[in-house]
Design goal:
mainly alpha; two-stranded antiparallel sheet; 3 domains; kinase; two-stranded antiparallel ribbon; about 325 residues; about 5% strand
Amino acid sequence: IIKAFLFANFEPSSSRRKARKTEQFGKPLECDFPHNTVFPGVNSPQDYRELLKKYLAIAPYLLPKDPGDILNRPTLRHPDLTPSNVFVCPDTFNVTCIIDWQHTIVIPLLLAAGYPRLFENPDPEPSTGLVPPKYPEDYDTMSSEDKAQVDELIRRQSLFYLYRVFNEGLNKVHLQALQDPLILSRQHLVDFAGRQWSGNLMTLRGALMRMRDIWQHVPGKDEQHECSIAFSKQEIKEQTENEPMWYNLNKLVNHWRDELGGLSEEGWVRSEQYDYAVERNESLKAEFSEGGSADELEKIERGWPFQDHEEFF
């Protein structure tokens, strides 16, 4: 019964609530800085609601049709398995405690599968094989600073490598889910559809377009079932032209998050990094404000991403 309920309600109910709240309380919003400098103006919450309607139309087909399929298995997902949240006994090396469960959810395995942050691939390109990391041949001649950077990269690469080795041996069902060819497209779509209205139409619209493009491979539909969502040629053209710049700006914001001590999207930072993050946030803002025009300064002040925001649905 639990499996069938979860299979039928894994995400649409949440997105329906988002759509209702967006309709009731949503306000026109502009994007945060730096996106508001390239994509100026405000976006309508009604446009976002229309995208959510498109998502709700195809959500029932994103998972395998059989509720008993192993990839539909209800799975407890802790979204923040970082070293600071996992306690290990120094004598036995057994995990003794895991904390910070406030955002934990139960979702189908196919949506939960992935690499915890602690074991994520540190390289920009996805791994193509199971090969242990190696130090560069010129390591011995490097400066101390360069060696430290290489050591950290090797450490993270080793964690990623060992996680995959043990995952393959001890958790074959998870490995099966990771090997699903649609896993990222599906997870990205569900993730973007579950976020509250923030003035951003780009990510959800792009995820919907990509799912439409691969519709013939979606597992939950009948063979003759046509995709029920559509976009105009103009919408597709604009998305194709604008999306690369949007994601380049995302990379810049992610770089700033690293500069702020690993700030999460929700604004969390380790307690020992808090004072540094506050100070660095002010200096970052000052750096980008220096020499700016009145219009640019207004956009920075209004849309700086690392400040308190009023919550809008």
